[in-house]
Amino acid sequence: MIEQVRRQRSLGTALFLALFLAILFWRLVPLMPGRVVWPGPDLALCLTLIWVLRRPRQLPVLAIGLAFLVEDLLLMRPVGLWAALMVLGSEAARKREAAWRELPFMVEWLRVAILIAMLMAANRFVQVLFFLPVPSLGQVILQYIATIAAYPVISGLAGWLLNLPRNRVETDTRLR
């Protein structure tokens, strides 16, 4: 029984990392070079928060930190800043997962929107504090709006395709 639980956790972590890398690959592919478009949603952020809120024991904090560190390196962002913020944000969501589970989806969506706003504001604050290049505020706001708008879609797809529905209690309490 314990081996089966460990296998499920390992498979869940591997699936998350595979999806994360697919999203990262999609972001790196130049689909329309030279053309300036609106910023799209941060699907990796949505996927991480959904996974932490649906299956918190399947996604260790080390996997989140390493995945976002690789993303920082490949997207040429300040190394470790977004990874550290994502670790803090995902752990804050993980800590409140049991309380959020019974609430309606709209409340979860609102709380995730507030958490993402805090993460983006903290990222911007640290970049300004250390005189790092900062993207324009309009672009950040547009990405925030796109990310919040994509959250319900990604949540529905995760529940349907990945078997990550809401309101399902994990039963593997022995291996906390």
Identify the notable features of this structure and list them briefly:
176 residues; mainly alpha; globular; disordered C terminus
Low-pLDDT windows of residues = 172-176
Amino- and carboxy-terminal Cα gap: 15 Å
Rg over CA atoms: 17 Å
Q: Total domains, how many?
A: 1
Number of strands: 0
Output the helix-strand order.
Answer: HHHHHHH
Proportion of residues in β-strands: under 5%
So how many helices? 7
Main beta sheet, described?
none
Helix content: 55-70%
Protein name: Rod shape-determining protein MreD
Transmembrane segments: 12-29, 61-88, 109-132, 144-164
Keywords: Membrane, Transmembrane, Transmembrane helix
Organism: Paracoccus halophilus
How are the SSEs placed, and which strands pair?
Layout: H1 2-28, H2 43-54, H3 61-74, H4 81-95, H5 97-101, H6 105-129, H7 137-161
Can you summarize this structure?
The chain is built from seven helices and no strands. It is mostly helical and 176 residues long. It has one domain.
What would you say this structure looks like, in words?
The chain is built from seven helices and no strands. The protein has 176 residues and is mainly α. It has one domain (2-28, 40-169). Mean pLDDT is 90; it is low at 172-176.
